[in-house]
Amino acid sequence: MSTRTEPGPRQRLLDAAQELTYRHGTGIGVDALLKGADVARRSLYEHFGGKDGLITEVLRLSAAEDEARYRQTMDAAGDDPRARLLAVFDRIGEVIAQGDFRGCRYLAADLSLADPDHPGHAVTRAYREHVSALLAAELARLGHPRPGPGGDQLLLLIDGALAAGATRPATDPAAAARALAEQVIAQAPAAP
Hints:
- This is TetR/AcrR family transcriptional regulator.
- By secondary structure, the protein is mostly helical.
- It has helices spanning 9-24, 30-37, 41-48, 51-76, 81-97, 105-112, 119-142, 147-167, 173-185.
- It has a domain at 55-185: Tetracycline Repressor, domain 2 (Orthogonal Bundle).
- It contains nine helices and no strands.
């Protein structure tokens, strides 16, 4: 006989907040989060100290998942750094085309968290630094003359594609970003 265990209140809060804050933003009310997680208010404060702690933990978990997706996307493209970088933009095009796409979780959080000292901002900054470093490492493998700034440029293209994908998806922002990314990548010397 097998018994199925339901997730506990902490996990239900995380799952509900991850979904609801993506769909409705970080301004979603505590009552909606509690209802979505089917937990008592006390659970929110016991596990996260309040809504700000929950939002920060959701951003941290989402960042780890998304960083892993970048790596998976690049690994699936093989060993060639150019192909690995361009695969990111191809994948962004696929993500934007999904019916439930609502834009970049991290940009939305940064715009909606009015307190500049909210701990969620530190998470979004670290996330962007990690992604930029991941992109810069591929540019360095190509022999790009300025991989750090190049990684930042590629990240800017990603951020722009995701923002435009939420507001103007018919313009195919991922394809436009990919074309610009090719120019950043082309600054590396040609392979012998």
